[in-house]
Each structure stands twice: as C-alpha cells, then as structure tokens.
Amino acid sequence: MKRRLTNWIAAACMALPLTGIAATAEPVLIGLIYPTPVADVGWAKQLDLGREAVEEAFGDRVTTRVVENIPEGPDASRVVNQLVADGAKFVVLGSFGYMNDGLRLAQRSPDVDFIHASGFRQAENFGTFTARSYEAFYLAGMAAGMVTESNTIGIVAAFAIPEVIAEVNAITLAARKENPDVNIRIVWVNSWFDPAREQEAARAVISQGADVVFSLHQDTPSVVNVAQAEGVYVVNTGSDMSAHGPDAVLGSVVHDWSSYFVEAVGASLEGNFEGHDERGGLASGAVSVQAWNDVLTEEQMARINETEAALISGEAHVFAGPLKDQSGTERVAEGEALPDPEIFAMNWLVEGLTGSLPQ
Amino acid sequence: MGTTLVFLLSGTLLAATPLLLAAMGELIVERAGILNLSIEGMMALGAVVGFATIMATGSHWLALGNQVATGIAVGILGLGLSGLIGKPYEGMTVAPMKRIPIPVLSEIPIIGPGLFNHSALVYLAPLLAVGLWWMLRSTRIGLIIRAVGESPESAHAIGYSVLMTRFLAVMVGGFMAGLAGAFIATVSATLWSDGMIAGRGWIVVALVVFATWRVDRLVIGAWLFGLATIAELLVQGAGISVPSQLLTSIPYIATIIAISILSMDGRKMRLNAPASLGRTYNSTA
Amino acid sequence: MMRLPWIVEPRIGRTGPRALLAPLIAVVTTVVAAVILMSSQGVAPSRAIWQLYVAPLSSLYNLSEVLLKMAPLLIIAQGLAIGFRAKVWNIGAEGQLLLGAIGGSLLPLWFNDSVNPMMLPTMAMCGMLFGMGWAALAAFLRTRFNANEILVTLMLNSIALQLLYYLVSGPLRDPYGFNFPQSALFPQVAMLPSLFGMGRANVSIIVALLATVAAWIFVERSMTGYKLQVGGVAPDAARYAGFREKRAVWLSLCIGGAAAGLAGVFEVAGPLGQLQRVVSPGYGFAAIIVAFLGGLNAIGILFAAFFMAVIYVGGDMAQASAGVPYAVNTSLQGVLLVSYIGARLFVDYRVRWRRDITQQGVN
C-alpha cells in the first residue's frame, strides 16, 4: 500500500521517471481510453482490435488496460492521469476531444508516449493518427454510382467536421464520375450517438428516393438495420457490419489500426518513439472497403480495384484538379491535387451538392 | 413524392408514439399533483429492463414530497443503472416488432401505408389516450386523481387517500415512461446503446405542459413534435439548409411560450393545471 | 378506497444531532451501494472502498482533482440553496452555467492576444451577468406571467445547450482549428492561476470557499436573507410583514444564475481553456443534489460538495485502475440523493402503522 502511495505521489510530481530498475522485468503497461463502450462493431471496437494486435505481437512484454466510455471533457484528463500514475508507458487517446489535456499531460510526462486519434497537434512524445477514410469512401462512392437505379444517394452524417466533409465530397465525386446523373441527399444528424434519430434520417432519405445510403460515423448498426429492412444498399463506417445487413451492405469502410499500433508501441519499447502525424489510408491498410456486395459485377469490381491500385500507388488522387466548390469557385487547378492540410481542414462542398454545411 | 409523404406520416407516427406513451403517464402523475422530473432516466431504464425497477424507486418519492430533488436523483440513478444493466447488450440488435397492416384502411394510397401499417403499440397509443381521456373525465378514479391534484386537503377531507393515489399515479407514470423507452429500443431503433434516449424525457415534460394537461391536446402535441423532427430531416434531405440547433430548440421555446400565455390568464390556467402541482402534501391522519 | 397501511406525520421540534443523521445515513448507504455495485462488476469490496473513498485523498495530485471538481459544485449549490430556502425552484443551473461559460469566453476570444491583467475579473463579471440574465428570463416570466419557474428553467437548459452548439460550430469557432466545433484557446491572462503550482486545482476553490462564507453571512446574518427565508417558510407571514414575493423570485433566480454563471466561467478559464461542446458533465444537476444533501445550509453544503467531488474523482480513478464502468459513478450520485431523501423521511417524519393508530384511538 505504501509503495503504491509513493508511486502516485511520484507520478504526480511531474511524473519523474519511476523506479527505472524494476521496469526491466515487469511488462510495460499500455493504457487505452475510448469515447464509447466497446461493442461488437464500431469505432471503439476497431481500436480494441488494434490493442489485441499489440498484445499478440509483444506477448509478455506488455499488458494493456482499457478504459471505455469516457466522455470528452475535463474529466477525461483525470482518467489519463490515473493511467500514467498506475505506470502506463504508452497511452492511446481514442478521441479528438482528449487533445488538449492529453498534450498537457504529455508535456509533464516526458517518459510516456501518447498517440491521439484525429488531432492536429504533435509533440516529441505525442503523435496523432487519422484515417484517410475519404479514400475508401471514394471507392464506395464509385460502387454506389454503379448500383443506384433511382440515381439518388442518401448520406446520413454525424457532424460537419472536416473529416466527414471530405468523405461527403469524395462520395459525390466518385459517384458522379461513374454516373453523372446522381443526386446526393445529405442529412446531418448533429450527434455521434442517437440511433433512433439516425434511423429516422435514413428513412427520410430513402423516402426521398435514395436507394444507396451512406452511414457516416454512426457507431451502431442503426442505419444498416434500416437499409436491410427497406431493401436498399448501405455503406457504413468503422467495422464490417455485413452480419447486420447481409443483403444491404454494399461495402463496409473498415478502420484497421493494428499495424500502426504495433509499430508505434514497438518504437516506444525500443525508446525511439517520435510523435508524428500518421495518416493511414488505403496504402497503409489503415482503411479499406470490405464485404463488397455480390451485386457488383466482375467488370465493376475490376474498375474499383484498378482505382484502388492507382490511389495506393499515388498515381491517382481523390481530390485531383480541376475541382470546383458549390459556388463554382475553382479550389484545385488542373494537374494539381489538394494538399493534405487543406483536406484535413475541408469546410466546403464540391460542385453539384445542394444545401450548405450546418453551422 | 408519394413515398416521401408516406414516410412523413409513418415517421411522424413512429416518432410521436414514445413521446405520447411517456407523456400520458406524466399527465396522470401531474394531474395527481406530482411533478415527476425523472422521465429521462426512467425511459432509459425502460429501454433496458422495462418497468421492474420503478417498484423500487416509486416509494421514496411521495412521502417527503420534494419532487424536484427526488425526480432528478431518480433520473440520474436511472441513467446510471441503465448503463450498467445494458453493458452486455451494447450495440446489439433485436428483430423489429411485427407490423400489423389494418385491413382495408392500409389499402388507401399514401395514407394507408403511412398511418395504417405499424406495430401494435403505435395503434395502441392513441387508443390509450382515448381511454385516458374517458377515465379522467367520467370515472371515479379520474375524479379522485383530479381531486387529489387540485386540492389534496379537500380530497383527504372527503376520505380519499392522497398518498395512495399519488403513489399509484407515479407507478403508472413510471410504467408508461418505461414502456416508451422500451418502444424506442425494441420497436423504433431495434437496438440498445447507452445514452440512446438522448433528451426525449425532457421533451415529454415539455409536451405535457404544452398540452395544458389535456389529453386531446397531448395527442395533437405529440404528433406535432414528431412531425417537427421528421420534417427537419426531410427538409435537410431536400437540400434546404436550416440551422438545426434552432429547430431542435423549437419544442422547448414553444413550451415556454405556452406556459407563459396560459399562466397569464389565471382562470384559464386554473381550468387545466392541477392546482397543487409540485406542492408538498403531508397527511397527518 | 384502498389506503396505505401506514401514515406519515411530521416530527415536532427537530433539533440537534438528528439533523446530521440523514446525511450520515445517505453517505453510509452510498458506500454500501458502491461496494455492491463494484462487486457486481467483479471488484473486491476492499478495493472498491479504497478506490472510491481513499484513493482520491491519497496524494496531493488527487486531492487537487477533488478540489477542482468541488469548486463548481460548491459555488452553484450555494447559489441554488438560497433560492431553494425561499421555495423558488431553479433547476436551470446547468443552462445558466453554459451561458456563463459563453459570456466568459467572449472577451478572451475577441481579444485573443490580450495581456491585460483585468481580463479574468472582467470575464467573471461577464459570465455572472450572462448566467443571471438567463435565470432572469425565468424570473420575468414567473413574476409577469406567473409561469412556473421549474418548467421554464428546465426548458431553458435545453435551449442553452443548443445555443452553445450553435456558437461553437459557427460564430465562436476557432478560425484556425480545422473546423472542429470548438473555440480558439484562451490567452494566458484568461486562465485561472493554479493553486499549488502543480495539479489542476486553481483559485476557483478559494472563490468557492469565499462564496460559502458570503452565503452563510447572507442567510444567517443579513436582513434580506432572513426575509427570503421567511418568505419560503411562511409566505403568509412574510406578506403580512410587507415582504414581496416577486422580489424573492427575482433575488433567488438572479443569485442562483450568477453563481452558476461564475462556475461556467471557471470551467472554461480553468480545466478547459477554451469553449467547446462539452463544458459541464452535469454540474448544474449534481449541484441540486449537493444543495439538498447539505440541508440547504451553507456549512452543510461545503461538506456535501466535498463528498460529491470525492465520489466523482474516486469513480474516475476506479474506472482507470479497476475497470469499473462510468455508469457506476452516475448510479452512485442517484443512490446518494434517493437515500438521503429516504432518510430525511424517517428523520423528519414519523411513520406509524395504521393498525397501531386505530388501537390508540380506541384507548
């Protein structure tokens, strides 16, 4: 008991390197905090698969501890701090809202390495990881353009943050390229978590003619269930949800953090972790489209695979010029591609989308 | 266009049903003179376990009668417990409840599939409302409930048990809130996740006031509130942009205006609002 | 007509140690509930008690977290209690807190490179005015239109939240923040000085303690405070003595609103450092529990706020160290007040079996 007490005080007092002598034999504690509970599908589940990969890769050298369902806000800081006080040497912050407190703690604890989801600030021991989900959604958008018969695609989106806006734009560009007559209907739910409302939104766009629905960043299979019941196609975010909608899922955009987590933890164990901005896309395998629906013909799949290969090799770019926004202003010139910082700060809709971004 | 109208009708009905169910319970409770602010938590609990837990919490709240504090406490407790109990079911899906198309009526174009092709509870809610209206107006029980809410002292004087009446009213209210929560989880969403009631409990409290404690207006109010949420989604889908926060606030703003207008005219208010609403009553004999 | 088999009657002359009994029973019940709930999650009872009630006080850092959490609860509860004593039911502290946070954020966002030392005091004033203004809406509607303040403040909570969402994703959004729904970070002069030079506790706890003293003096020693209380306990007597009810409503709501507004400023100028979608983890509602748990007494509230903060912090730590779900925390808050109210029933009232009374009646 007393030893534990001393540990806490020591950790609290600027988190001086703890008893470095003991650390050699004991497994290194890795802490992960998730914004939502780990369910059988969803964002937290995918992070947790990354954790499992780490355990598998490093065996006895590490132990992991998960703290789930931590709301973003000042209280999250306490939880992270407690993990560090308990001796965690590597911390995964699973949501954007943990950024500022996480960064502050990282500055106070130079011997602990952090990786943070979706953030935009880095430090020596504080890296960030973001998915280029828009690349995968581009492929799914192609498929949507191919299979739609009503020429209407519906999008149920959580919040109008840049990551989601980029996905909406990617879907629109791809679907339009396959099928210039496609109409896009977007409904912003303005919530990360309200299954009943997400389903109402999905039904709304279906009633307005959509026969392919995109579920952008809904953690539960809410929209997938509706699509299955209503007999339309659906593309969801996060996990493979084809079990919830065997006929409906056109493809699932899946996040896979295993190789990045293993690499980052490995670097941390070796003592050469460097906080950088990891942007995992199709190329690194961090995002992919899985569970492609059989309705796509071989010829269509070939085109999709071809585009995927081009995006991976860098030959093609989702936001390649010429690209105009809604008002007709040119955003990207012919022969150029939108640079990363602008993709990750996207606040405009591409030409052809109606409506404006919610304030 | 046709399918949009069908959805406008069916979506409205589906969104309004849990509001109506919970609000009918709250109406009984408020008519008996109790202001129950734990709806949100109870709906959350209902979404997981139905009404079992209301038995345990119901009893505390009458005797001391501090309804505000107790309501909030029970509400918080309900939210917490629902999270705990629901943990193993996080994100799980159940099969949707069977739809029962009403013969003949469901054949009418647009209106048929919009209004007459739903699960049993959707039809049941307005029927219950008719029953509730009749009960409050013409039965002995209704009379007792109203008497207790209006003037507990007089009700007591003529031999009715104020505490017993309120106790039962709260039980019914809790049951209805639980039913509404269960409806959202098992009929409309067909899945459970922590926090899925998402503020609907507060809308229910607003709705009862908005309806000025009258059953007919409660039904219309629930449909209006349901219509507002569905219309917003359709408007967005049609590419017309509206500040969603303003739309979300409309039920609350409407309720404040309704309270103010009704309360301004003292007589009108007295016709509907239970006079002893929210006041503590101690029986001493 | 069916009757309950018991009746409840007030005890006459409640004094002395019995007043302490109810909070004590509530605390013990909560501890027992904590052990049961934690055990159900597979945590040994001794570990549960350690995590929830001892660990939060076991180091300077943790203590500083408790103080950080205690400050807003204490400030809001003191403000609310004054109104509750006058029987003015302001349950809109959550919304008033949000308005305070918004009001307090305007200056540091408009003058983002300011180094003016008057920044913090001005922010605090601004936030208090905003919180007060939001509460004053309810006071106006109550005094002018006789609108029930419970319902109005309740509705205003939901509207305040939507207002905050609108502001952080629109007008007050950080122009360099990649469009995330949050404001720019505050300049250093807009941040509350930390208390021990470490940890996150800041001067808000000192202000909260001063507010406690002020509340005590106001209630126990000032004429206005006395009038307010009389108005609550015996409205007819108060009216007879010439105290106006309208004044009590205005005063109660404005004090409560200002206190909640101040707490809102302290959240954005303290642990948050910016305006964002999540400003309060329900402090406005928790403070209602704290106010009642403290018996609406300034000193009692001090202890209640401390206990509540310990539960919060202990819960968070138990979550991190022992894997106990967040819901345990929420449940315990509920248990605390439900058992307190239950205990008050037995302390303030006598429960007698009807059968016994009938027999007495015969005698």
From TrEMBL, chain C:
Bilayer topology: Multi-pass membrane protein
MF annotations from Gene Ontology: transmembrane transporter activity
Localisation: Cell membrane
Lineage: Bacteria, Pseudomonadati, Pseudomonadota, Alphaproteobacteria, Rhodobacterales
Gene Ontology cellular component list: plasma membrane
Secretion signal span: none
Keywords, comma-separated and alphabetical: Cell membrane, Membrane, Transmembrane, Transmembrane helix
Pfam families: BPD_transp_2 (PF02653)
Protein name: Nucleoside ABC transporter membrane protein
Segments crossing the lipid bilayer: 20-40, 60-84, 96-112, 118-141, 150-168, 201-219, 248-266, 286-314
PANTHER family, A to Z: ABC TRANSPORTER, PERMEASE PROTEIN, GUANOSINE ABC TRANSPORTER PERMEASE PROTEIN NUPP
Chief location: membrane
InterPro entries: ABC_transp_permease
Species of origin: Paracoccus alcaliphilus
Keyword Translocase among record annotations: no
